[in-house]
């Protein structure tokens, strides 16, 4: 019985990580471990906060969630590639 519960817990955790990986923008070369996924998600949240604070989010972009998501994903990828963050960075 404990094995079944552990398998279900592990499956649920893996599904949650898969969902998180779909949300955070990644680079084609990324093959993220669970800890790397969590660290990148934390950085992405920080990045989004900075975008909101900097007034770069204009009203047109905010009105279309798909376009906003695509633009933010692109901006985050550029931010990462410019070296503002690396997978080895601790957070």
Automatic annotation (TrEMBL):
| Record keyword Transcription regulation present | yes
Which ranges carry the BHLH domain?
Answer: 1-48
PROSITE patterns per record: BHLH
InterPro entries, per database record: bHLH_dom, E-box_TF_Regulators, HLH_DNA-bd_sf
Q: Which domain of life is it from?
A: Eukaryota
**This protein's UniProt keywords:** Activator, Biological rhythms, Developmental protein, Differentiation, DNA-binding, Myogenesis, Nucleus, Repressor, Transcription, Transcription regulation
An example of a Gene Ontology BP annotation on this entry?
rhythmic process
One GO MF term, please? Answer: protein dimerization activity
**Repressor is among the record's keywords:** yes
Question: Which SMART domains does the record match to this protein?
Answer: HLH (SM00353)
Q: Which SUPFAM superfamilies match?
A: HLH, helix-loop-helix DNA-binding domain
What is the role of the protein in this entry? Acts as a transcriptional regulator. Inhibits myogenesis by sequestrating E proteins, inhibiting trans-activation by MEF2, and inhibiting DNA-binding by MYOD1 through physical interaction. This interaction probably involves the basic domains of both proteins. Also represses expression of pro-inflammatory cytokines such as TNFA and IL1B. Regulates cranial suture patterning and fusion. Activates transcription as a heterodimer with E proteins. Regulates gene expression differentially, depending on dimer composition.
Report the protein name in the record: Twist-related protein 1
Q: Give the species this sequence originates from.
A: Scytalopus superciliaris
- Per the record, the gene is Twist1
């Amino acid at each position: 019985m404990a094995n079944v519960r552990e398998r279900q817990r592990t499956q649920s955790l893996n599904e949650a990580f898969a969902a998180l990986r779909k949300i955070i923008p990644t680079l084609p070369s990324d093959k993220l471990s669970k800890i790397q996924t969590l660290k990148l998600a934390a950085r992405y949240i920080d990045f989004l906060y900075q975008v909101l604070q900097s007034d770069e989010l204009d009203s047109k972009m905010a009105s279309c969630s798909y376009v906003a998501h695509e633009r933010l994903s692109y901006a985050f990828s550029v931010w990462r590639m410019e070296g503002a963050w690396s997978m080895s960075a601790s957070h």
